[in-house]
Design a protein that fits this description.
Largest sheet: 11 strands, antiparallel
Number of strands: 11
Number of helices: 3
Distance between the termini: 53 Å
Oligomer: single chain
Number of domains: 1
Strand content: 35-45%
Structural class: alpha+beta
């Protein structure tokens, strides 16, 4: 019974309302097998949680919340299940969170420092990724799996 209460608390706290410390308005482009989006959005985060809210014509159409689970309008799922359904099953669990926070992916593999940020190129049997982070833009493209995530400042 005690474990059931713990599991219940974890599941329902994953999608609970948060007070985010940082909110940024961005131009967001996402193209994957399940998401096709190009418009404004908010990226909000705290130390342990991040939220991506997508808008079309000033109307919120989707909210993706990431902490120990990833929650969408369809419900909450593990990070690996989210990757399998929305991105690609071979991706590391923390890839979406790292992209949204401008952090290195794949544990920094092939990371090259640039004048205004960094770049990574990751090519193997399952992916062909170009990932660039600068002061004003995040660019992720997996040519093999036809996935693009581009996040730009609105300035």
């Amino acid at each position: 019974m005690k474990y059931l209460l713990i599991v219940f608390a974890l599941v329902f706290s994953a999608c609970s309302v948060k007070n985010y410390e940082i909110t940024q308005t961005k131009v967001i482009i996402i193209k994957s097998k399940k998401i096709k989006f190009a418009d404004l959005g908010y990226v909000r985060n705290t130390e342990d949680s991040i939220e991506l809210e997508l808008f079309v014509a000033s109307k919120a159409i989707e909210k993706i919340t990431i902490n120990h689970l990833i929650c969408t309008s369809e419900g909450c799922t593990t990070k690996s299940s989210f990757n399998k359904e929305y991105l690609h099953e071979s991706y590391p669990n923390d890839i979406l969170q790292n992209i949204l926070l401008s952090k290195a992916i794949y544990n920094g593999k092939n990371r090259v420092q640039t004048e205004f940020g960094f770049e990574q190129t990751i090519v193997d049997l399952e992916v062909d990724i170009v990932y660039r982070v600068s002061e004003s833009e995040i660019y992720f493209k997996d040519r093999k799996n036809k996935i693009i995530i581009k996040i730009k400042d609105t300035k």
